[in-house]
Amino acid sequence: MAPDAPAAAVRVRALRKTFGDQAAVDGIDLDVPAGRFVGLVGPNGAGKTTTLSMITGLLRPDSGSVEIVGHDVWRDPVAVKARIGVLPEGLRLFERLSGRELLCYLGALRGIPTAEAERRAAQLLDVLDLAGAQNKLVVDYSTGMRKKIGLAAALLHNPEVLFLDEPFEGVDPVSAQTIRGVLERYTDSGATVVFSSHVMELVESLCDWVAVMATGRIRAHGPLAEVRGDAPTLHEAFLELVGAGERAAAGDSLDWLGGGAATNTDTGTGTANGADSTPRKDGGR
Ligand SMILES: Nc1ncnc2c1ncn2[C@@H]1O[C@H](COP(=O)(O)OP(=O)(O)OP(=O)(O)O)[C@@H](O)[C@H]1O
After folding, report:
1. pTM recorded for the entire structure
2. 3-class DSSP string for 84-113
3. Distance from the CA of 73 to the center of ligand 1, in angstroms?
4. Nearest CA to ligand 1 atom 27
5. In total, how many domains does the chain have?
6. Is the pLDDT of residue 252 over 80?
7. Ligand 1: which residue has its CA nearest to atom 3?
8. Which listed residue, of 87, 109, 193, 264, carries a Cα 20 to 30 Å from 167's Cα?
9. Is the pLDDT of residue 197 over 50?
């Protein structure tokens, strides 16, 4: 391979997963370049979590293959798991450990020498603004704190590629800024971050490479500017790619919805207010 063509961080071929007769991921191909900040975006149910779960070895595909920095996820799982960090959706943690104990324990599982694991844990807790809660049990952590301790756990072994499923969901703006700073520093060192999100503004401001998914397929992927094309924002390009205009128009059929009783007058099932549109507190009895 030419020196100016670095190996893909993630190489996906014909990846497919069905649940019953529904294809959650419908045979996707994807090459994620190394050293990028990558956003996987798509509407609810697009298949983002299913894709990330298969890429990280948490869910077995029906067919297709995934390589991470040249290692097959299903044939070479140990090599892959040593190279990746994962913050999955609905992260399960050891709830009865404190944040610091959790990181030190995971460090031991990863084979990191105790002193080094403690050093890294202390630094991560500090940078992620969790030092004050390091002795608190994880079960007592808030949603945002859980995301941050999950991120610390995913970074502890200094992985080459980090996968984050909705890392900013439930996180306040200050913590989001902290997480962002950590991730930017991490990608500046040449590592790759792949994260899923619905928040286009966030993806646009953080990512230099995006993949847009809808109904189990990749609709567009590549450098941010290319995917955005002539659209003024990624948000607008996204709406066009996933056909959201049609779905928005479908809302027109909710002609009864308006928060008032007046629209119920001729249905025969309403409040019997008749032509009087004045709201009545007695429920029309
Ligand atoms: N374990 C499962 N059993 C049955 N159907 C599933 C399962 N997991 C996912 N699906 C279905 O697969 C489709 C893709 O789901 P997935 O969670 O991957 O989407 P997503 O893009 O992550 O959505 P969201 O943004 O809402 O989290 C959905 O229609 C979902 O209902």
Report:
1. 0.84
2. EEEECCCCCCCCCCEHHHHHHHHHHHCCCC
3. 21
4. 44
5. 1
6. no
7. 19
8. 109
9. yes
